[in-house]
Amino acid sequence: MEGLINSMGEFLDPEFLGPILLGISGRIVAAVLIFVIGRWIAAALTGWFTRAVGKAGVEPTLASFLGNLINMTLLVFVILTAASALGVPTTNFLAIVGAAGLAVGLALKDSLANFSSGVMLVFFRPFKVGDFVEAGGVAGTVARIQIFSTVIKTGDNRVMIVPNSLIYGSAITNYSAEATRRIDLVVGIGYDDDIAQAKALINSVLHDDDRVLKDPAPTIMTLELAESSVNIAVRPWVKTQDYWAVRGDTLERIKGVLDQNGLSIPYPQHDVHIVSQAN
Protein backbone atom coordinates (compact mmCIF):
# COMPACT_ATOMS: atom_id res chain seq x y z
CA MET A 1 0.00 0.00 0.00
CA GLU A 2 2.79 2.33 0.88
CA GLY A 3 4.46 1.60 -2.49
CA LEU A 4 1.26 2.50 -4.35
CA ILE A 5 0.97 5.80 -2.51
CA ASN A 6 4.61 6.61 -3.30
CA SER A 7 4.03 5.81 -7.00
CA MET A 8 0.97 8.08 -7.12
CA GLY A 9 2.90 10.81 -5.41
CA GLU A 10 5.68 10.59 -7.98
CA PHE A 11 3.10 10.68 -10.82
CA LEU A 12 1.35 13.74 -9.37
CA ASP A 13 4.62 15.55 -8.87
CA PRO A 14 4.39 18.86 -10.83
CA GLU A 15 7.86 18.40 -12.22
CA PHE A 16 6.75 15.05 -13.75
CA LEU A 17 3.10 15.79 -14.61
CA GLY A 18 3.66 19.32 -15.95
CA PRO A 19 5.54 18.40 -19.15
CA ILE A 20 2.98 15.67 -19.90
CA LEU A 21 0.03 18.07 -19.57
CA LEU A 22 1.81 20.71 -21.58
CA GLY A 23 2.52 18.16 -24.30
CA ILE A 24 -1.12 16.98 -24.44
CA SER A 25 -2.54 20.50 -24.37
CA GLY A 26 -0.11 21.56 -27.07
CA ARG A 27 -1.21 18.70 -29.29
CA ILE A 28 -4.88 19.54 -28.71
CA VAL A 29 -4.29 23.20 -29.56
CA ALA A 30 -2.32 22.24 -32.66
CA ALA A 31 -5.02 19.83 -33.77
CA VAL A 32 -7.77 22.42 -33.28
CA LEU A 33 -5.78 25.06 -35.18
CA ILE A 34 -5.08 22.63 -38.01
CA PHE A 35 -8.76 21.72 -38.24
CA VAL A 36 -10.08 25.31 -38.12
CA ILE A 37 -7.52 26.77 -40.52
CA GLY A 38 -7.67 23.74 -42.81
CA ARG A 39 -11.45 23.89 -42.98
CA TRP A 40 -11.30 27.58 -43.89
CA ILE A 41 -8.71 26.92 -46.60
CA ALA A 42 -10.81 24.02 -47.97
CA ALA A 43 -13.90 26.25 -48.17
CA ALA A 44 -11.90 29.01 -49.87
CA LEU A 45 -10.39 26.64 -52.44
CA THR A 46 -13.78 25.05 -53.11
CA GLY A 47 -15.39 28.46 -53.67
CA TRP A 48 -12.58 29.55 -55.97
CA PHE A 49 -12.85 26.33 -57.99
CA THR A 50 -16.64 26.58 -58.32
CA ARG A 51 -16.41 30.16 -59.56
CA ALA A 52 -13.59 29.33 -61.98
CA VAL A 53 -15.39 26.40 -63.65
CA GLY A 54 -18.58 28.46 -63.73
CA LYS A 55 -16.83 31.21 -65.69
CA ALA A 56 -15.37 28.53 -67.99
CA GLY A 57 -18.91 27.55 -69.04
CA VAL A 58 -19.08 24.21 -67.23
CA GLU A 59 -22.61 22.93 -66.55
CA PRO A 60 -23.78 24.23 -63.10
CA THR A 61 -24.73 20.70 -62.00
CA LEU A 62 -21.25 19.37 -62.69
CA ALA A 63 -19.57 22.46 -61.21
CA SER A 64 -21.51 22.09 -57.96
CA PHE A 65 -20.84 18.36 -57.73
CA LEU A 66 -17.11 18.72 -58.38
CA GLY A 67 -16.95 21.52 -55.81
CA ASN A 68 -18.58 19.31 -53.17
CA LEU A 69 -16.28 16.42 -54.06
CA ILE A 70 -13.17 18.61 -53.71
CA ASN A 71 -14.45 20.02 -50.42
CA MET A 72 -15.04 16.55 -48.97
CA THR A 73 -11.60 15.37 -50.09
CA LEU A 74 -9.88 18.37 -48.50
CA LEU A 75 -11.86 17.93 -45.28
CA VAL A 76 -10.78 14.29 -45.02
CA PHE A 77 -7.15 15.38 -45.48
CA VAL A 78 -7.56 18.08 -42.80
CA ILE A 79 -9.12 15.64 -40.33
CA LEU A 80 -6.33 13.10 -40.87
CA THR A 81 -3.70 15.82 -40.39
CA ALA A 82 -5.38 16.98 -37.16
CA ALA A 83 -5.57 13.40 -35.88
CA SER A 84 -1.89 12.94 -36.66
CA ALA A 85 -1.10 16.09 -34.68
CA LEU A 86 -2.89 14.53 -31.70
CA GLY A 87 -0.64 11.52 -31.98
CA VAL A 88 -3.31 9.20 -33.36
CA PRO A 89 -1.75 6.69 -35.81
CA THR A 90 -3.43 7.19 -39.18
CA THR A 91 -1.84 4.33 -41.11
CA ASN A 92 -4.29 1.72 -39.87
CA PHE A 93 -7.15 4.17 -40.32
CA LEU A 94 -6.22 4.72 -43.96
CA ALA A 95 -6.11 0.96 -44.53
CA ILE A 96 -9.58 0.59 -42.99
CA VAL A 97 -10.93 3.45 -45.10
CA GLY A 98 -9.43 1.92 -48.24
CA ALA A 99 -10.97 -1.49 -47.54
CA ALA A 100 -14.33 0.11 -46.77
CA GLY A 101 -14.13 2.16 -49.95
CA LEU A 102 -13.47 -0.98 -51.98
CA ALA A 103 -16.44 -2.78 -50.42
CA VAL A 104 -18.73 0.20 -51.00
CA GLY A 105 -17.49 0.52 -54.59
CA LEU A 106 -18.31 -3.12 -55.32
CA ALA A 107 -21.73 -2.77 -53.72
CA LEU A 108 -22.53 0.42 -55.63
CA LYS A 109 -20.92 -0.42 -58.97
CA ASP A 110 -24.14 0.29 -60.89
CA SER A 111 -24.56 3.65 -59.18
CA LEU A 112 -20.92 4.50 -59.85
CA ALA A 113 -21.40 3.59 -63.52
CA ASN A 114 -24.40 5.92 -63.68
CA PHE A 115 -22.42 8.62 -61.92
CA SER A 116 -19.42 8.40 -64.26
CA SER A 117 -21.74 8.38 -67.27
CA GLY A 118 -23.53 11.44 -65.90
CA VAL A 119 -20.23 13.28 -65.54
CA MET A 120 -19.34 12.43 -69.15
CA LEU A 121 -22.76 13.56 -70.39
CA VAL A 122 -22.45 16.90 -68.60
CA PHE A 123 -18.82 17.36 -69.64
CA PHE A 124 -19.10 16.45 -73.34
CA ARG A 125 -22.70 17.71 -73.70
CA PRO A 126 -24.08 15.53 -76.53
CA PHE A 127 -27.40 17.17 -75.71
CA LYS A 128 -28.78 19.86 -73.41
CA VAL A 129 -32.03 20.53 -71.60
CA GLY A 130 -34.79 21.20 -74.13
CA ASP A 131 -33.32 19.05 -76.93
CA PHE A 132 -35.41 16.33 -78.55
CA VAL A 133 -33.33 13.16 -78.42
CA GLU A 134 -33.49 9.43 -78.83
CA ALA A 135 -31.26 7.75 -76.26
CA GLY A 136 -31.34 4.71 -74.01
CA GLY A 137 -34.36 3.36 -75.88
CA VAL A 138 -36.44 6.48 -75.13
CA ALA A 139 -37.40 9.36 -77.44
CA GLY A 140 -38.49 12.71 -76.05
CA THR A 141 -37.48 16.15 -74.81
CA VAL A 142 -34.71 16.36 -72.20
CA ALA A 143 -36.17 17.85 -69.01
CA ARG A 144 -33.23 17.46 -66.59
CA ILE A 145 -29.70 16.05 -66.67
CA GLN A 146 -28.85 14.66 -63.23
CA ILE A 147 -25.77 12.97 -61.85
CA PHE A 148 -27.26 9.46 -61.85
CA SER A 149 -30.10 9.73 -64.37
CA THR A 150 -31.60 11.87 -67.12
CA VAL A 151 -35.27 12.89 -67.11
CA ILE A 152 -36.89 12.74 -70.57
CA LYS A 153 -40.46 13.82 -71.29
CA THR A 154 -42.06 11.91 -74.16
CA GLY A 155 -44.41 13.33 -76.77
CA ASP A 156 -47.47 11.98 -74.94
CA ASN A 157 -46.32 13.75 -71.74
CA ARG A 158 -44.86 10.74 -69.93
CA VAL A 159 -41.85 11.37 -67.73
CA MET A 160 -39.11 8.78 -68.23
CA ILE A 161 -36.16 8.56 -65.81
CA VAL A 162 -33.34 6.85 -67.71
CA PRO A 163 -30.09 5.72 -66.00
CA ASN A 164 -27.14 7.62 -67.42
CA SER A 165 -25.19 4.42 -68.07
CA LEU A 166 -27.88 3.28 -70.53
CA ILE A 167 -27.74 6.62 -72.35
CA TYR A 168 -23.97 6.98 -72.56
CA GLY A 169 -23.49 3.30 -73.42
CA SER A 170 -25.72 3.45 -76.50
CA ALA A 171 -26.17 5.57 -79.62
CA ILE A 172 -27.55 9.07 -79.00
CA THR A 173 -29.62 10.79 -81.69
CA ASN A 174 -30.05 14.51 -81.09
CA TYR A 175 -32.75 15.86 -83.38
CA SER A 176 -32.31 19.41 -82.06
CA ALA A 177 -28.55 19.71 -82.51
CA GLU A 178 -28.74 21.46 -85.89
CA ALA A 179 -30.80 24.47 -86.90
CA THR A 180 -32.20 22.76 -90.02
CA ARG A 181 -33.45 19.28 -90.91
CA ARG A 182 -34.32 17.48 -94.13
CA ILE A 183 -37.73 15.88 -94.56
CA ASP A 184 -37.54 12.57 -96.45
CA LEU A 185 -40.77 11.64 -98.21
CA VAL A 186 -41.58 9.04 -100.87
CA VAL A 187 -44.58 9.68 -103.13
CA GLY A 188 -45.77 6.93 -105.46
CA ILE A 189 -47.59 7.54 -108.76
CA GLY A 190 -49.03 5.12 -111.29
CA TYR A 191 -47.03 3.75 -114.20
CA ASP A 192 -49.46 5.44 -116.60
CA ASP A 193 -48.96 8.88 -115.01
CA ASP A 194 -46.63 11.59 -116.33
CA ILE A 195 -43.55 11.69 -114.10
CA ALA A 196 -42.53 15.21 -115.20
CA GLN A 197 -46.01 16.55 -114.44
CA ALA A 198 -46.01 14.90 -111.02
CA LYS A 199 -42.61 16.39 -110.15
CA ALA A 200 -43.75 19.84 -111.30
CA LEU A 201 -46.88 19.66 -109.15
CA ILE A 202 -44.88 18.53 -106.12
CA ASN A 203 -42.39 21.33 -106.68
CA SER A 204 -45.23 23.87 -106.75
CA VAL A 205 -46.43 22.62 -103.36
CA LEU A 206 -42.97 23.10 -101.88
CA HIS A 207 -42.47 26.48 -103.56
CA ASP A 208 -45.75 27.84 -102.13
CA ASP A 209 -44.78 26.93 -98.54
CA ASP A 210 -42.69 29.73 -96.97
CA ARG A 211 -41.44 27.33 -94.31
CA VAL A 212 -39.55 25.29 -96.90
CA LEU A 213 -36.03 26.66 -97.22
CA LYS A 214 -34.73 27.81 -100.57
CA ASP A 215 -31.14 27.09 -99.60
CA PRO A 216 -30.46 24.23 -99.63
CA ALA A 217 -33.01 23.71 -102.37
CA PRO A 218 -35.51 20.84 -102.18
CA THR A 219 -34.68 17.64 -104.03
CA ILE A 220 -37.34 15.96 -106.17
CA MET A 221 -36.12 12.87 -108.01
CA THR A 222 -37.34 9.54 -109.33
CA LEU A 223 -36.31 7.08 -106.66
CA GLU A 224 -37.28 3.65 -107.97
CA LEU A 225 -39.60 1.69 -110.20
CA ALA A 226 -41.42 -0.24 -107.54
CA GLU A 227 -43.74 -3.23 -107.87
CA SER A 228 -46.94 -1.19 -108.10
CA SER A 229 -45.80 2.42 -108.46
CA VAL A 230 -43.15 4.83 -109.64
CA ASN A 231 -41.69 6.25 -106.43
CA ILE A 232 -40.57 9.87 -106.30
CA ALA A 233 -38.26 11.09 -103.50
CA VAL A 234 -39.28 14.46 -102.05
CA ARG A 235 -36.64 16.01 -99.77
CA PRO A 236 -37.25 19.61 -98.63
CA TRP A 237 -35.19 21.37 -95.95
CA VAL A 238 -36.89 23.19 -93.08
CA LYS A 239 -36.05 24.73 -89.72
CA THR A 240 -35.85 22.10 -87.01
CA GLN A 241 -38.81 23.49 -85.09
CA ASP A 242 -40.99 23.32 -88.25
CA TYR A 243 -40.17 19.69 -89.10
CA TRP A 244 -43.35 17.87 -88.05
CA ALA A 245 -45.76 20.61 -89.09
CA VAL A 246 -44.26 20.93 -92.58
CA ARG A 247 -44.07 17.16 -93.00
CA GLY A 248 -47.76 16.66 -92.29
CA ASP A 249 -48.89 19.66 -94.37
CA THR A 250 -46.71 18.67 -97.33
CA LEU A 251 -48.08 15.14 -97.48
CA GLU A 252 -51.65 16.43 -97.37
CA ARG A 253 -51.08 19.08 -100.06
CA ILE A 254 -49.27 16.68 -102.39
CA LYS A 255 -52.16 14.23 -102.12
CA GLY A 256 -54.63 17.02 -102.92
CA VAL A 257 -52.77 18.46 -105.92
CA LEU A 258 -52.21 15.03 -107.46
CA ASP A 259 -55.89 14.18 -107.09
CA GLN A 260 -56.94 17.49 -108.64
CA ASN A 261 -54.80 16.82 -111.72
CA GLY A 262 -55.88 13.23 -112.22
CA LEU A 263 -52.67 11.58 -111.03
CA SER A 264 -53.12 8.50 -108.93
CA ILE A 265 -51.33 7.36 -105.80
CA PRO A 266 -51.53 3.60 -106.30
CA TYR A 267 -51.74 0.92 -103.69
CA PRO A 268 -50.32 -2.61 -104.05
CA GLN A 269 -52.40 -4.63 -106.46
CA HIS A 270 -52.12 -7.69 -108.67
CA ASP A 271 -53.53 -8.23 -112.15
CA VAL A 272 -55.09 -11.67 -112.52
CA HIS A 273 -55.35 -13.10 -116.04
CA ILE A 274 -57.74 -16.00 -116.58
CA VAL A 275 -56.88 -18.20 -119.51
CA SER A 276 -59.68 -20.39 -120.73
CA GLN A 277 -59.00 -23.55 -122.70
CA ALA A 278 -61.41 -24.83 -125.32
CA ASN A 279 -62.39 -28.47 -125.05
CATH class of the largest domain: Mainly Alpha
Radius of gyration computed on alpha carbons:
37 Å
Number of helices: 8
Overall domain count: 3
β-sheet strand percentage: 15-25%
Cα shape: elongated
Q: Would you tell me the structural class of the helices and strands?
A: alpha+beta
What about the largest sheet?
A: 5 strands, antiparallel
Could you write a compact summary of the structure shown?
By secondary structure, the chain is an alpha+beta fold.
Structure description:
The protein has 279 residues and is an alpha+beta fold. It has three domains: 12-107, Helix Hairpins (Orthogonal Bundle), CATH 1.10.287; 124-174, SH3 type barrels (Roll); 180-260, Alpha-Beta Plaits, CATH 3.30.70.100. The protein has eight helices and ten strands. The strands form three sheets. It has a five-stranded antiparallel sheet. Helix 2 runs antiparallel to helix 3 (60-85). The longest helix has 42 residues, at 14-55.
Distinctive features:
single chain, 279 residues, alpha+beta, Helix Hairpins, SH3 type barrels, Alpha-Beta Plaits, 3 domains, 5-stranded antiparallel sheet, 3-stranded antiparallel sheet, 17% strand, elongated
How are the SSEs ordered, and which strands pair?
Layout: H1 2-11, H2 14-55, H3 60-85, H4 91-107, H5 109-124, E1 132-135, E2 138-145, E3 149-153, E4 159-163, H6 164-168, E5 173-174, E6 180-182, E7 185-189, H7 195-207, E8 219-225, E9 230-235, E10 237-239, H8 243-260
Helix pairs in contact: 2-3, 7-8
